[in-house]
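retry 2 of 3: previous attempt timed out while embedding zinc ion. Reduced batch size to 1 and resubmitted. Inputs unchanged:
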Amino acid sequence: MIQNFDRMHGLPDGFFDITTANIRSLFPNPTLIQLDGQDNNFLFISILLHGNEYTGLKVMQRLLAKYADKLPRSILLFVGNVQAAEANLRRLPEQVDFNRCWPGSLMEPCPTSNMMRRIIEIAHGLPLFAAIDVHNNTGRNPHYACITDPNLRNQNLAASFNRTAMVYNHKGVCTMAFNDICPAVTLECGLPGDETGIEHACRFIEDLLTLQQIPEEALSRESLHLVESHLNLHIAEHVSYDFDPAADVDLCFEKDIEARNFTLMDTQQVFGYTRVDRPISIIDTNGHDVTDEVLRIEQGKIFFNQTLMPAMITRDKLVIQQDCLCHLLQDYLPHHDVEF
Ligand SMILES: [Zn+2]
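retry 2 succeeded.
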């Protein structure tokens, strides 16, 4: 079984007027749209893999309005989880996460992963210049790119978005499915709809429409600070929590915890407070629980056992339940072996 998706050649009328709330009036199903441009090396762009992350839609509306009939480069645009977008949710409760089920995923094959496999087959059948997956964060974060393969092309592509970029290894993300096919990055463009994020992604993609070649030069740490994510931090089920140290709950954090995003925390800085034994679980990219190696609790205070950089901290309880509270980053080291 494969999940239904539609294919279009050219933009449907009304594309520039839709919002996520009425997106299914144009795109009742996930939709792959081929847009022909002068240079036939396609840019693959995926938007709305997470339904409430609508910056990608705004970016494509703005860019395609500008380049209406004279697109410098062909685009293959995948409009992802329209059902969740309509409901302004990352995904519907009964759905799998649209950015965890691409080829390379560890999950059991399902209609949605079969659809993603087919999308990759179609894209792979075309000459591809690069693949860009546009996302938002649910917390306050700088804009940054994520790459799953830290080869030099991907590094250069990431560095042209921001000087800090993340190497990540979550199985089944869209960007990973393009490894060995073409350069690929995930763009994290701040909060959904944030104007600076829309503008930033527009400029980035616009440059790719006319760029002849993605550079392959080695970059200094000043040009690109690469960090990596091996660890996801989850709040254990049935643990009550709040973002207020005075709250009467099992686990609490400072109100401004989002200010910790992309800052290093050493082994003596307090990450949170708890009155229960195991309020948090930390899972590595292989799915192993490494909580006891990574953190310790002393007199109700939570500390990390080594310097780590929290990122993508969210205070949105639904996202915390469906995804995680945050990721824990370290400086990327080539051929770095995970020690946890
Ligand atoms: Zn996302």
